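Feature request disguised as a bug: please show the residue count (385) next to ATP synthase F1 subunit epsilon in the output. Example input:
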Amino acid sequence: FLRSKVVWITGASSGLGEYLAYELAANGCKLVLSGTSEERLNAVKSKCLKDGLPEDDVLVLPFNITDFDVHEDCLKKVLQKFQKLDILVNNAGRSQRAAFAEIDVKVDKELFDVNVFGTLNLTRKVLPHFLENKNGQFVVTSSCVGKMGAAFSASYTGSKHALHGYFETLRTEMSGKNIDVTLLCPGPIFSHFLENAFTGTPGQKFGKPTDPKDHRMPTDRCARLMAVAIAHKLDEAWICQQPNLLFFYLVQYAPTFFRKVLVGKFYTPERAEKLREGRWILPRRVASVMFASMRSNGEWGSGSGKGGGSGGSVRDAGGSFGKMEAAREEEYFRKQQKEQIKKLKSHLQDEIEHHEDSIKKLEDEIKRHKEKIHKLNKEEDKVGK
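Example output, currently without the count:
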């Protein structure tokens, strides 16, 4: 399905947009790469070319998603280059870390300009082209928080809920017109997303990287599953590791239990502080049970098909990936677990070396103090005599 499709990706200079570009390039798509950093976009283009994509099949088109006035001109450049556009991936966005009560309304407005209004304006510019061609697909990078609440991300969570409202409506209006809407809901991933995240203060960035010890999905893995969902034109895809996938189901089918029981047990003051700092730490008991479940059935994501029914894992969406793909995912999981163990061992070894170094410094300090005391004792004896 994807080969030779013209795909326009916003937010393509880093994170999910960057890795999605690599996945689509590997599948023979023609790419339009947009973002605010032309230098980073050219770096992404270079990697796509190294992977075999022809030079003429990539257009670097830098612009700021909040600069609404340039959207139409950008679309004209895309059509001038490729004469058509098949898929628009609305991926541009920024995250947030701040307590609800501390958020300035200016931050709410600025975040919505990036995450919602810029996306809507660009979509409305592209829609007439899709209608004229009687074909097209809008892809929206939402988030797991587009389906549930998330502490210390009120504006971000609100923006993702808004995207679901707008694009569910668009899907309804486009019914029977061969124009598809795919909402992608990734869970926590490893990326630089938090470094550029909003806080509650205008003009301030969160500025902290994700912690390698956190329970997150690798960005390249998430991008690959996003490509699978796009290829199968899923209405909605939940792309995350367990137990986050379980949380999705509970929010959908047992919301009261999720909010009153599970959130109450999980949301301890200690974990709340870690969430505020951008960490994603799972209760050890929950994580171990979910890991056991993952080993037994290989589930990594879930999606609803075009008919709206539950589709199992993203791997099985449309029924075309089969046993070979299941085996690959199982092998990927084993490799990831080994990598996580390796990273944890390395981290612990670093901690040991750090503590050993600290102990040695303390021992040296104690030795120096003892020598000083010895000298002072001698001086005291001289004074006494």
